[in-house]
Amino acid sequence: MFMRIAISALNLSTESGSSNAGISRYCYGLIEALHQLPDKHEYIVFLRKGVEPPGHWKSDPRFKFVGPRGPRRKSLTISEIIGGSLQVRKYKPQAYLSTAHAVPMYCKCPKALVVHDLFPVTHPEFFTKKMAKVTAMVNGWAINKCQLLLANSQHTKQEILRIYKCPDSKVKVIYLGLGNIQEAVEPGSVSDVELKRIGVPFKKFLFTIGTLEPRKNLPRLIESFAQISKGLEPDFGLAIAGAKGWKESGIFQKLRKLSMEDRVTFLGYVADEDVPKLFARCEFFVFPSTIEGFGIPALEALHFGAPLVCSDAGALPEVAGPDAVLFNPHSHDLMEGALKEGLRRSAQRDALVEKGKEFAKQFDWQTTARQTLDAIVKMAAK
After folding, report:
1. What SS3 string covers the chain?
2. How confident is the model at residue 68 (pLDDT cuts 50, 70, 90)?
3. Mean pLDDT, the chain, as a whole number?
4. Cα atoms in the Cβ-side hemisphere of radius 13 Å centred on 276
5. Lowest-confidence pick of 22-26, 189-193, 234-238, 278-282
């Protein structure tokens, strides 16, 4: 069955930088995989102003890329709800897929929405009041208006069912692939000089990555690391990668209070090609997040060859694999114990890395794209 499918990818960024994360990575992974599939569907992909799609996408005759009409709006939500309505009418798709948050106000074709999480509703304290209120309102409206919801994990699906009382048949779980598609590297190929160039001054280190914001639970991680570092050599540190987000001041307050400035380094945004080097050289990757809708960093740790010590919150047990050390992220004692267990397992590193890489193979964008396309075709056929 040939179809014309509209895809909202307003969060896509094709430039290197901190804006190219999260939902942007999802958009890229999905569209790249759709480009590789041998189907004959036509795709109308809506982008925000200034975003240039890769050349191999533009050369694919099945794809048409459309920028927003009218002046550039600061709010992508408004662009989709209002501007998207006009564009959908013009291109007359048989189905519409929103990759996040919102759908057009006036759209007669069947609509699907990717739900990455419901944190503005379930954890509004992690956001500014305005961000939580607006996002929760738009999400709720879109969830009720769509015929199909694509949840990125079983955890997210259960939250949708619990909060919005949707029928189970309306929500389909489709797992994601890797956000960073670089090749893995061997630990021995990453020198101390290379680590220092990236910003890591330590001989040995624990590694974590994520936007600096309250949900990532970094103050508690710093506190737990401060406790275990008392028994470690002086050049053993904690490396934290990720751009500043919001409400991040508590992280640096905790750092100063514990006088841990010499044992913790903040790398800021790290280029994609350097991230695998950090996974390869770290003693283990620690992911202390208090809640995750999916948890791509945990999956990437396994793929790039780092043992995983991980929070058991949200969807993380679904992607962490059977050999990860899991802990309750709200307990300082349990987090500290998990870090110690991660260090005790250093002799098993090679075996843990191989098991992790094998587990991570089941998460790939080709599977995501095929399952997403199948679900959209079935939705439109009803």
Report:
1. CCCEEEEECCCCCCCCCCCCCCHHHHHHHHHHHHHHCCCCCEEEEECCCCCCCCHHHHCCCCEEEECCCCCCCCCHHHHHHHHHHHHHHHHCCCEEEECCCCCCCCCCCCEEEEECCCHHHHCHHHCCHHHHHHHHHHHHHHHHHCCEEEECCHHHHHHHHHHHCCCHHHEEECCCCCCCCCCCCCHHHCCHHHHHHHCCCCCEEEEEECCECHHHCHHHHHHHHHHHHHHCCCCEEEEEECCECCCCHHHHHHHHHCCCCCCEEEEECCCCCCHHHHHHHCCCEEECCCCCCCCHHHHHHHHHCCCEEEECCCCHHHHHCCCCEEECCCCHHHHHHHHHHHHHHHHHHHHHHHHHHHHHCCCCHHHHHHHHHHHHHHHHHC
2. low
3. 91
4. 16
5. 22-26
Helix pair angle (129-145, 154-164), 10° resolution: 90
Measured CA to CA, the distance from residue 184 to residue 172 in angstroms comes to: 31
CA nearest 56: which of 76, 33, 72, 84?
Answer: 33
**368, two tokens:** 């995501």
Please give the pLDDT value at position 18.
47
* Mean pLDDT across 138-156: 94
Give pLDDT tens digits for 295-338.
Answer: 999 999 999 999 999 999 999 999 999 999 999 999 999 999 99
Position 245, amino acid: G
- Give the model confidence (pLDDT) of 87-106 as tens digits: 788 889 999 999 988 888 77
Q: Which of 31-45, 69-83, 223-237 has the lowest mean pLDDT?
A: 69-83
What's the whole-model pTM score? 0.91
**One-letter amino acid for residue 115 of the chain:** V
**335 contacts 224 by C-beta, under 8 angstroms:** yes
CA distances from 181 to 53, 304, 357, 365 (A): 17, 10, 14, 10
